[in-house]
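Format notes (please read before filing issues)

Several people have asked whether sequences and C-alpha cells are stored in separate files. They are not. Every record keeps both together, in the order shown below: the sequence lines, then the C-alpha cell lines. Line labels are part of the format and must not be stripped during preprocessing.
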Amino acid sequence: MKSLILAASAAALVAVAPAIAQNAAAPAKGKPARAERTETRADVQSRVAAHFTKLDANRDGFVTQAETDALIAQRQAKRADRQAKRAERRDPAKMFDRFDTNKDGKVTLAEAEALRAARNARVAAKTGKPVQGNAGAMNGLFTRVDANKDGTITKAEFAAAPRPERRGMRPGGGKGGHGQMLGMADVNKDGRVTVAEAQQAALSRFDRLDLNRDGKLTPEERRQARQQMRAQRTKG
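Then the structure lines:
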C-alpha cells in the first residue's frame, strides 16, 4: 500500500516517460513539444535522472513519500499563486484600467490598439517571431463592447460586456494545459524509489509505445497510442 501511495504522489516525475496524451506544455523558444519530437530510450533515461535529482531533496539516492509530498505542496502553492494572478488579470476593473492609459475613465479604440500592439511587440521580442493577428479583430471587439456606439468604452460598458468579448480585448492571453500522471514503480517494495527503478518504469512504458521496436518513439506512434486508448475507452 505504501508503494502505491508513493507512486501516485510522484507528480514531479510526470514527464519522465513518453506522453501518450497531448502534451500541452509550451515549447521553449520554438522548440517542438516532446509529443512532436522523436525520442530515444537514452533521452528517457536522461530526463528521468534530471527529474529524479529535483525530487531527491536530501541527495541520498532515494525518493521518499516525504520528499514527494514536499514537492507536491510546493507545486500546489505555485499553482494557487498563478490562479490568483489570473483572477486578478480577469478582473474587469483592473483590465479596464490597463486599457485606460490616460486615466480619463474612458477607453478609445486607439488606446486599445496601442496596448495590444505593445503586448505583441513584447511577445515577438521574447520569442523571436512576429505575432500573427487579424488587423480588424480589435475594431470588431471594440464596437461590440461600445454599447452606446459613442466611440469610447466606459468602465460600466466594459464590465457589462460578455466575458468572451473582454477576453478578446485583453492585451495578454495564452494557453494552458496539464500533463498526465505517470506512475513510479517501487520495484523492491521498500517504500523508496531509486533512479534505476524510476528509469525502469519509464522505459517499460516507452517500450510499450515503441510499436516497431526500433528504440525510438515517434509522433506517429504516440498518435497511434492515443487512438488505441480512445478505442479501448469506447469499448469499455
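For reference, the curators noted about this record: The mean pLDDT is 75. Residues 153 and 180 are 42 Å apart (CA to CA).
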